[in-house]
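Narrative of accomplishments. A recurring question from our advisory board has been how the design workflow behaves on a single, concrete structure rather than in aggregate. To address it, we present the structure tokens for one chain from the evaluation set, followed by the sequence designed for it. No filtering or post-editing was applied between the two.
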């Protein structure tokens, strides 16, 4: 299994970015998947998750601003990030786990498969 993250960059406060995760050896849409972020000042934080049936859930810190989605035809997971804030600065990586029965965002840091991460920097 390989998860390849991309799409990070630098934006100003209030800007938008979309990060992507292309999967191989794993079929997007058949497993619980999510996004995790890691910054130097915080522990790993699960921010979003999407279930096999498409149900999504989010950390309170990003709810209403971030949207997780998947394109099964492209075998790709996305995280659309709007109204970005400096505290969103982190390395974002996707995660997947075939064993998960409760697909909840706060479980994503412990998922078995992870991407390599893509850096998102938000300046004030």
């Amino acid at each position: 299994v390989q998860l390849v993250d991309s799409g990070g960059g630098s934006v100003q406060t209030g800007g938008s970015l979309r990060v992507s995760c292309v999967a191989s050896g794993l079929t997007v849409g058949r497993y619980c998947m999510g996004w995790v972020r890691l910054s130097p000042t915080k522990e790993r934080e699960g921010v979003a998750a999407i279930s096999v049936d498409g149900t999504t859930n989010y950390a309170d810190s990003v709810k209403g601003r971030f949207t997780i989605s998947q394109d099964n035809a492209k075998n790709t997971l996305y995280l659309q990030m709007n109204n970005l804030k400096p505290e969103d600065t982190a390395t974002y990586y996707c995660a997947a786990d075939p064993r998960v029965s409760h697909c909840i965002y706060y479980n994503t840091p412990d998922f078995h498969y992870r991407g390599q991460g893509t850096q998102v920097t938000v300046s004030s």
